């Protein structure tokens, strides 16, 4: 077995980062030979430690309680099968390659826009997650109050996001931001905990995962029943007959108000959005802005962005246990 | 009426009721007089339904409080007008009261108007074909008949199954209707299988619960109509 530690660039949740709008869940993957494998825990329960140090306003037991709640939030769907085990408090540090999954605070004043991050140690052959650490940046002010604390970031909310990474999810772009005067951006709205930018201090909204998050986690850890009850949309995005790579494809269910999305991930512009509740969906395609790409794709990925927002010309039916017919969404250049 | 007279009247009524039973024990029952023969008919024809609003729905992003803060786009949804065929068998229960059982096949569709895209995309109207199969039972009451023409009210209820255009997706629901109509016999004394042949037209309100839907509303109502050939036998 070969082990490899990665600090995926997409795992940082930033207080005021460079990401702007859009929608989608994305699974983390690792290259094995000529293919990319989705990463996941295959040996459950996930055994984790919590650092034994208190941070300002947060004791180690409070951190452990918030972490357990965040893991439970991802596991609350009956269609998802995840199990975890708190092993104990430890003096070990997050990000040490020590065979232990450690979650704790670290003071990183140099990361002035990073609230937290997640790293992995992977099996280089299977993509199995062997170890994953999460750090929260104690350079920020934190709260574990039930209703949040103004001017402090909510530990449970940020942990819910980071645990999503720990489980194998990448960033969603289901959100909108506005540019700040001094640089960076703030969230004006989002519909996914896995959006890369946190709500402002005081908000506890990210304690609750959204439909986009649920589909993402179900896609990775879905039960056999989920595969029978849920469906998928597949298709491709083209411009002048050529595939569009890196386009955001968003599915909206008017009956429920849910938004679930995916990306085109091949040079042919192909996409699959899996683990979707059955129903009729409106499908919308939009480009990633240049500033978004680093949060979602490797720098050397040739993401196409010079096209106009477009809708598929029909509603798309998602059947139980199946996939919609392959749809082609044709977009026009800007 | 005095109290005494009232008592006598009750006693007489009891006697009137009891006496036939007494006779029945000692005499053979008289042959029952045959009533008018119950009639039956078969209807087949075309049906149409008007558009039915399924409300509006917005693709919303949420702010830090959980309230909607950004509308990505707005949709107005409806079940598009539909056309189809249906057939039913009718049975006369009483002189003016009929019961019917039938089935219907319709082609309709879901239609969405998309406006106010947050990133300036052009407004769009998109749709999806739907095949609707339904089975219904109905009661008809002919409340007025003059010559060859009869007016009726009709109420029905049943189940429906909506199939997406590629038949990969199906939704079940309930359907009901209430309306008025008119039947006209242009042949009333024919020979062969069908003694009477006529035309029937009906306008009604169609109520749908479940089935293919783009809106949050579980129940919707819309106009509908039908024109049928009627074969009496």
Number of helices of chain A: 4
CATH architecture of the largest domain in chain A: 3-Layer(aba) Sandwich
* Strand arrangement across the biggest beta sheet of chain B: 1-3-4-5-6-7-8-9
Gyration radius of chain B, rounded: 28 Å
Amount of helix of chain A: 10-25%
CATH names the topology of the domain at 39-52 and 81-113 and 125-232 in chain B as Porin
What are the segments of chain B in which pLDDT stays under 50 over at least 5 consecutive residues?
Answer: 1-29
Radius of gyration of chain A: 19 Å
Question: Could you tell me how far the N terminus lies from the C terminus of chain A, measured between alpha carbons in angstroms?
Answer: 48 Å
Instruction: Indicate the CATH class of the largest domain in chain A.
Output: Alpha Beta
* Name of the top-level CATH class of the domain at 39-52 and 81-113 and 125-232 in chain B: Mainly Beta
Task: Describe the main β-sheet of chain A briefly.
Answer: 7 strands, mixed
Structural class of chain A: mainly beta
Give an overview in words:
- The complex is a heterodimer of chains A (334) and B (233).
- With 334 residues, chain A is mainly β.
- Chain A has 2 domains: 2-217, Collagenase (Catalytic Domain) (3-Layer(aba) Sandwich), CATH 3.40.390; 230-330, Immunoglobulins (Immunoglobulin-like).
- Helix content of chain A is 13%, strand content 34%.
- Chain A has 4 helices and 22 strands.
- In chain A, strands 1, 2, 5, 6, 7, 8 and 9 form a 7-stranded mixed sheet that branches.
- In chain A, α1 (60-74) packs across α2.
- With 233 residues, chain B is mainly beta.
- Chain B has a domain at 39-52 and 81-113 and 125-232: Beta Barrel (Porin), CATH 2.40.160.
- Helices cover 9% and strands 65% of the residues of chain B.
- Chain B has one helix at 3-24; strands at residues 40-49, 52-62, 68-92, 97-115, 124-146, 149-164, 170-187, 196-210, 219-232.
């Amino acid at each position: 077995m070969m082990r490899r530690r990665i600090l995926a660039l997409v795992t940082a949740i930033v207080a005021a980062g460079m990401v702007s709008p859009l929608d989608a869940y994305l699974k983390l993957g690792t290259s094995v030979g000529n293919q990319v494998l989705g990463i996941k825990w295959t040996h459950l329960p996930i055994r984790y430690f919590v650092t034994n140090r208190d941070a300002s306003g947060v004791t180690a037991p409070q951190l452990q309680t918030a972490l357990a709640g965040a893991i439970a939030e991802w596991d609350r769907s009956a269609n998802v099968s995840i199990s975890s085990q708190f092993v104990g408090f430890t003096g070990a540090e997050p990000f040490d390659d020590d065979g232990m999954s450690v979650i704790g605070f670290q003071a990183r004043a140099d990361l002035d826009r990073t609230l937290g991050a997640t790293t992995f140690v992977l099996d280089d052959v299977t993509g199995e997650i062997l170890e994953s650490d999460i750090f929260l940046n104690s350079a920020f002010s934190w709260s574990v109050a039930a209703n949040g604390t103004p001017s402090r970031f909510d530990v449970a909310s940020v942990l819910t996001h980071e645990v999503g990474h720990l489980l194998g999810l990448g960033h969603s772009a289901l959100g909108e931001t506005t540019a700040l005067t001094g640089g960076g951006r703030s969230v004006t709205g989002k519909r996914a905990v896995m959006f890369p930018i946190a709500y402002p201090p005081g908000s506890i909204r990210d304690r609750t995962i959204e439909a986009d998050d649920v589909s993402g986690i179900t896609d990775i850890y879905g039960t056999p029943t989920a595969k029978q009850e849920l469906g998928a949309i597949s298709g491709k995005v083209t411009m002048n007959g050529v595939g569009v790579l890196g386009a955001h494809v968003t599915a909206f269910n008017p009956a429920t108000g849910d938004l679930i999305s995916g990306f085109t991930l091949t040079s042919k512009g192909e996409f699959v959005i899996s683990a979707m509740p059955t129903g009729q969906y409106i499908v919308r395609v939009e480009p990633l802005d240049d500033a978004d790409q680093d949060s979602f794709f490797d720098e050397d990925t040739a993401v196409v962005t010079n096209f106009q927002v477009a809708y598929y010309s029909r509603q798309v039916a998602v059947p139980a246990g199946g996939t919609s017919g392959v749809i082609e969404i044709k977009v026009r250049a800007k | 009426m005095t109290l005494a007279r009232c008592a006598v009247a009750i006693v007489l009524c009891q006697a009137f009721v009891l006496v036939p039973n007494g006779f029945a024990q000692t005499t053979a029952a008289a042959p029952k007089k045959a009533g008018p023969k119950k009639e039956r008919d078969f209807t087949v024809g075309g049906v149409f339904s008007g558009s039915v609003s399924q409300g509006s729905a917005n693709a919303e992003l949420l702010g830090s409080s959980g309230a909607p803060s950004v509308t990505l786009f707005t949709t107005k949804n409806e079940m598009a007008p539909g056309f189809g065929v249906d057939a039913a068998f009718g049975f006369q229960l009483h002189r003016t009261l009929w019961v019917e059982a039938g089935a219907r096949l319709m082609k309709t569709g879901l239609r969405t108007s998309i406006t106010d895209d947050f990133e300036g995309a052009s407004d769009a109207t998109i749709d999806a074909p739907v095949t609707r199969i339904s089975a219904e039972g109905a009661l008809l009451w002919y409340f007025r008949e003059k010559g060859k023409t009869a007016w009726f009210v009709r109420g029905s209820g049943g189940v429906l199954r909506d199939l997406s255009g590629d038949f990969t997706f199906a939704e079940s629901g309930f359907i009901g209707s209430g309306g008025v109509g008119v039947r006209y016999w242009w042949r009333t004394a024919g020979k062969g299988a069908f003694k009477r042949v006529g035309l029937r037209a009906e306008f009604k309100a169609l109520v749908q619960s479940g089935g293919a839907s783009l809106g949050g509303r579980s129940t919707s109502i819309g106009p509908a109509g039908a024109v049928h050939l009627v074969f009496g036998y």
